[in-house]
Amino acid sequence: MLSTFDPDKGPLFQGEFGNLAVIDPALPGHVGNLVLDPTKPYTVRMTWELWGTDVPLYLAALDPQWQVAAFAESMGPGPEIRLGSDAVLVSSGVADATKPFGMVWTHDLTVPAGTLPEDVGGTSGVYKIVATVFLNSSIGAPGFDIAGFAEGPLVRIENPV
Question: What are phi and psi of 92, to 5 degrees?
């Protein structure tokens, strides 16, 4: 998984996505996988973290809510779609004692049934999932926004019947 966070100030401030997963609501007794039924909702779960001595300063000075979003990019012909977005309180982060001033957030976005089309009529039915997290700054120049990006798994949308 490709993960990028800005800013990256070495030991003063760093961030990364720890996980970006698509969770298929498998039927009882079945294993979930990356082939998703378009008639059922599913979940995009993301975990991200920050650490470094400047983290408390940034978090105290910026917007109190992360703006979180997930997107699907068609691999081949098909739509580019926002799967969902949400606001996540900065205060919901959990301390990570393994890193200096470490904080971790986990959030689930539920994607409604019918959001992505399957392989019919010239649409590939294969999508790359991408997530973003953003913490806005109103401090002014030079800009103190925090942005994170992660490329996640490929999924196929396919009705099982």
Answer: -80, -5
CA 143 to chain centre: 23
Q: Report d(CA 3, CA 160) in Å as an integer.
A: 32
Tens-digit pLDDT profile for residues 92-136: 999 999 999 999 999 999 999 999 999 888 889 999 999 999 998
Q: Is the dihedral of CA 94, 96, 97, 102 positive or negative?
A: negative
pTM for the full model?
Answer: 0.89
Residues 42 and 23: beta-carbon distance below 8 Å: yes
Longest dimension (CA), the chain: 55
Contacts of 30 (CB under 8 A, 6+ apart): none
